[in-house]
Amino acid sequence: MAELYEIGDLRLSLADMTAKPLFGAAPKIEILKGLTFSIPKGAVVGIVGGSGSGKSTLGRALVRLLEPAGGAIRFDGTDITHLSEAALRPMRRRFQMIFQDPMSSLNPRHRVGTIIAEPLRLHGFDAIPYRVARALGHVGLPQAFAVRYPHELSGGQRQRIGIARAIALEPDFILADEIVSGLDVSSQAQVLNLLERLVADLGLTLAFISHDLSVIRRLCQRTIVLHQGRIVEDRPTADLFADPGADYTRDLLAAIPLPDPAQAWG
Amino acid sequence: MLDGRSQVHRRAGLRLWLSALWLGLLCLAALLAPWIAPNDPLAQDLFLGRLPPVWMSGSEPGYWLGTDSLGRCVLSRILHGARVALVVALIAGTVTCVIGATLGLLAGFLRGWVDVVISRLIDIWMAFPPVLFSILLIAVLGPGLTSIIIAIVVIDWTRFARVVRAEAMAQGAMDYVASARVAGRGRLGTMVREILPNVLPTIVVLLTLEMGIAVIVEAILSFVNLSISTDDPTWGGMISEGRASVHQAWWVLVFPLIALFLTVLSFSQLGEGLKDRFDPVLR
Amino acid sequence: MKALVIRNLSVRLKNGAPLLRDVSLDLDAGEVRGLVGESGAGKSMIGKAVLGILPPSVEVVGGEILLEGTDLLRLPLRERRRRIGATCALIPQDPLTALNPSHRIGPQITDRLVDILGWTRPAAIARARELLAEVQIEDADRVMRAYPHELSGGMRQRILIASAFAAEPRLIVADEPTTALDVTVQKQILKLIAGMQARHGTAILFVTHDLGVVSKVCQRLTVLYSGLVVEDSTVAAFFAAPRHAYSAALLAATPKYTDPAAGLNPVPDGVIESVRAEVAAHDARQAGGRHG
User: Fold this and answer.
1) C236 to chain A: which residues are within 8 Å by CB?
2) Do B230 and B84 touch, CB atoms closer than 8 A?
3) Is there a contact between B2 and C17 if contact means CB atoms under 8 Å apart?
4) A265, C216: Cβ pair inside 8 Å?
5) Average pLDDT over residues C74-94
């Protein structure tokens, strides 16, 4: 299987505004400390870690919302590590992102139809109304939703709009950043089932960022465990759950409260 | 919650309509002043000096709100004064808003060196005392309507720039801005399509407040005799003249003050009301 | 005596939409009861009604809230506030916004003891030190001088827990206290709450949407749908066999990594329809009772 993403020794630092002295620049803290991995075409890869593990930063680097300080990101053979915004623009259609908070990722002043249509227009698609309708159909929402505003929808419906916006562009790759962590278990199950079906039907490659190993286990063939900016484990999901290699992975697994009073949770 | 919101709405609606009504009447009065004013606002007649309003004894028919010490009709002068007040409010308010909001938007959204330059400029600007600054400016430019407008724009753009910059920064951190970039939108496009609509309610409120402020600034400058030529009636000028004879003829002072007060209040209420209308989340 | 008894509590929006429908539940002294449901089920509303912090658009239209035998709703406002302040505490969801960013941690724990409960300042500070040690914060003096933003989310949540236990309350409302935290931190915090609760013998109303959490810290639970109690069970009985179809579906929708073949099961439409019918039937009975 060909590789869609090849990441070599990826490093990224961000300014730490909480430690900014009164005068002078804020100190930089290294968030990603040399990550190397690849994502084959058609794979569903889980990226898991606690807060501060760098998983969201990694996600934003993959879709080049952030520019790495060092290392390389190759997308389908092209080095996109330091591409300028202008050079990236035509490629952006191919790697899309679904955000954690569907309320803040949908512009509150635009209607749902506009939110889905806008990226299509930017990339010069034809038959936009048809594509918007098809995207709404894909995520199982009625066409009438096109004229609604985001705040008129439930959390699960908003997240479906986020998915519709991403798949409408017919991308190769989708990054899903904690997309179900704000949802009730039932909507969570609906959104995940939907995503799983779409990935299979549309032949997408998916990176699924989550702190929830139960969800990762259900959805992903391979899992990368991040801890403090480093990869501590990168293995097929079934192996990882059967025999976690890193201490951190074991801690993560042991911390999950299963809905079962008999679970030893010491 | 729903109920609370609709109650707020009704009340906001009433405020909106009352203020729109007053400002509408004022616009009409300003436009039609030469035809509806009962008397020539400049005509002096010392025999008719300090006439009280019509409902008081000793009044003269035709002089509804009385006359000042030179025998000029107070109502006619208020009507003509509305022209100056509104021209200043509309032109100075709008120009200040466009310049200030654009700079604020650029600084808040683009960040980097653009922000550094604009922010420093704002800081330096705000260090000047505004009243002295405006008096100085008028002294240099010479009195007149254009000078007043220029003075207001030059001093007050920072008011917009500061607030809009902060708001644009907050909106810029939202994920919908990131998602516009993922979709492949350029920076200026994102600013206009994504950020601007979300900052607009704030801008509208600021704009109407600024219009009220412009009316006050014009009145203050007239009061200190730095506005347009002293013959032309302005509310500030009338208040200044009325102050001298407040014990003999309170109406010369009070009526232009009421007009000024209602106008400034209406502008700010109009802004609050419009903000709610503009906001699909509240609507 | 029961720490808390709620009888037929009805709460609605002032325009009439019901939020809690005849909710009844009780809490023994030193017991932890989970309040479970999806967003909008009214689980937080119960805690807010008990603490008297309902939003202004919401009103209590009927029922009783007996705190250690006294009906709070019948007390004059000032007396109710005093009693709640002296016997209840809240552990809030968001450890960031629950601490005032412009005050140091120390006063935020001690001020309530001094200003409202009339402790002396040195006694309050000594108590704060003791509690911070109990929530396993080692350098208590440094932490008490710190501002909230200088501390991590887990640390802030520990401080809020210490603060909640400060005046030895009889009842604590914990409103999704670990939802904003990582699983590993969540585990530490839950163990901490459970340990403190056992030592101090405090009753807790534990609001959460996570049945996994309920199975770890609660003895009994109430499942709500649209403000209606659909199930009231002991934890052991519930997880062995939920009695209500909706609560069973909620349990089935909760993912379990130990059982990857089970799949993700949203609550089936049929179950939603039937529980909605129950809610409608309840409302019809209410309306009928009022007119008849």
Assistant:
1) 261
2) no
3) yes
4) yes
5) 90
Cβ B182–A92 below 8 Å, yes or no? yes
Global confidence as pTM: 0.84
Q: CB distance from C54 to chain B under 8 Å?
A: no
Q: Is C58 on the interface with B (CB under 8 A)?
A: yes
Please state the φ and ψ torsions of residue C24, each to the nearest 5 degrees.
-125, 135
- Considering only CB atoms, A149 lies closest to which of B185, B189, B280, namely B280
Q: Which chain A residue lies closest to B171 (C-alpha atoms)?
A: A104
How close is the nearest chain B Cα to the Cα of A158, in Å? 12
Cross-chain Cβ contact B2/C13 below 8 Å: yes
Q: What angle do CA C67, C69, C75 make, to 5 degrees?
A: 65
Concatenated DSSP letters of B150-167: HHHHHHHHHHHHHHHHHH
Alpha carbon separation from B216 to A43, B93, B227, B244, B263 (Å, rounded): 66, 12, 12, 20, 10
C46 against C102, higher pLDDT: C46
Q: Give pLDDT tens digits along chain B (283 positions).
A: 333 444 445 556 788 889 999 999 999 999 998 888 888 888 888 888 888 888 888 888 888 888 888 888 889 999 999 998 999 999 999 999 999 999 999 999 998 899 999 999 999 998 888 878 888 888 888 888 888 899 999 989 999 999 999 999 999 988 899 889 888 888 888 999 899 999 998 999 999 999 999 999 888 888 877 766 657 788 888 888 888 888 888 888 999 999 999 999 999 888 888 877 777 665 5
> Which residues 21-60 of chain C have a CB within 8 Å of chain A?
38-39
CB contact under 8 A, A253 and C266: no
Largest separation between any pair of C-alpha atoms in chain B:
78
For B52-120, list the strands marked E by DSSP.
none
| Chain C residues within 8 A of A185 when measuring between CB atoms | 38, 209, 211, 250, 253-255
DSSP codes joined into one string, B215-234: HHHHHHHHHTT-SS-TTS--
Q: Can you tell me the distance from the alpha carbon of A140 to that of C198, in angstroms, rounded to the nearest whole number? A: 48
pLDDT at B64: 80
Say yes or no for a CB contact (<8 Å) between A185 and C153: no
How far apart (Å, rounded) are the C-alpha atoms in residues B198 and B204?
11
Nearest to C197 by CA among C178, C172, C222: C172
Q: Is the pLDDT of residue A1 over 80?
A: no
